[in-house]
Give the backbone structure.
Amino acid sequence: MTHKKCLHLKMKLTKIFFLLIVLLAFYSCSSDDDICIGGEATPRMKIKFKTEATGKLKTLDSLYVNVDYGSGPVSVIARKVKTDSVYIPLRVDENPYTEIYVGLSKAAISSKIKINYTTSSQYVSPACGVKKIYENVNSSVETANPVVGAEQPQTQIIDENKTHLFLLF
Amino acid sequence: MLNAGMAAFSHRKVLQGYVSSRLQNNLHGIVQAGFEKNIYDKNGYDATASGPFAKLGAFYMLAYDRENTMNGFYAGAQLAGSFYRQEYRAIPVRGYAGSSTSVAYPSSTQSSYWVEGIIGGKVQLFETPFYIDVNVQPRYMVFSTKQDDIQPMIVPGFGQSSGKFNLGFSWNIAYFF
């Protein structure tokens, strides 16, 4: 190999080398640590509605739900459209219950429902961290009107497939 | 060739050194050992890990200076292992409306094993026996022991990543004797 040829090869290798570094640097930027894709995290409580008198499923014309996560009620659901089911995230701290407030109009979110449970923790993934699983779930209507009663078909919340709570109107 | 590197970035404290020796022609063997202490404190996590790691491998001089064959670019591969103590003081529980909390796990001893490539260059510092060595190490995690299935966020020697792939970068001063 002549000296010139050798130099040329060296230049080429140098170029490849730096290109490789740049490519690797870009590749290493992609990280999936930050975003927790729904469904893997703590399951929400699925709520459906029934007419108390008949026991039949009911579709509401509007629904408002506020939830107290420890610092006063915050609005979680505010719908003016027909609604037959909602998903409510419960508290994930050490509190043994979550209080939710339900109403059919924004002016009167007046029914208070207390959901008691025990929790356990389960590791999910780097992005989602740990999820809570709720067991021994039982709900009671503390303040009636418009909700007059509650049925608890599921006593544990491990996923979002089944209906965990029926509210009676 | 003896080489020592130190890094003291914000949270990461590494002390490592390596010895490389020519096996034949352009092939060099490399033994690397170090100790790393690191913190992972973001996205609701608060974790620490510290422990020693060791790497064993070889690299090949791809292109070098005719007058000094130690000057040049090289590429190689290493097998690596790390034995460390980790403590996850907080793993997040993601809740609604900012009501997130965390769960703490007791400290435990774990180990991880990975393969890594090494691509770099060495240049002699004037006429001294010292060399400046810059290299990147693409790493691929092969196996980790886990505590309650928790994917490790930091592994000494491997770096900060929950993924299988990570990229290391280092520059060192090397002494040739």
About this structure: Residues 153 and 162 of chain B are 5 Å apart (CA to CA). Chain B has one domain: 2-175.
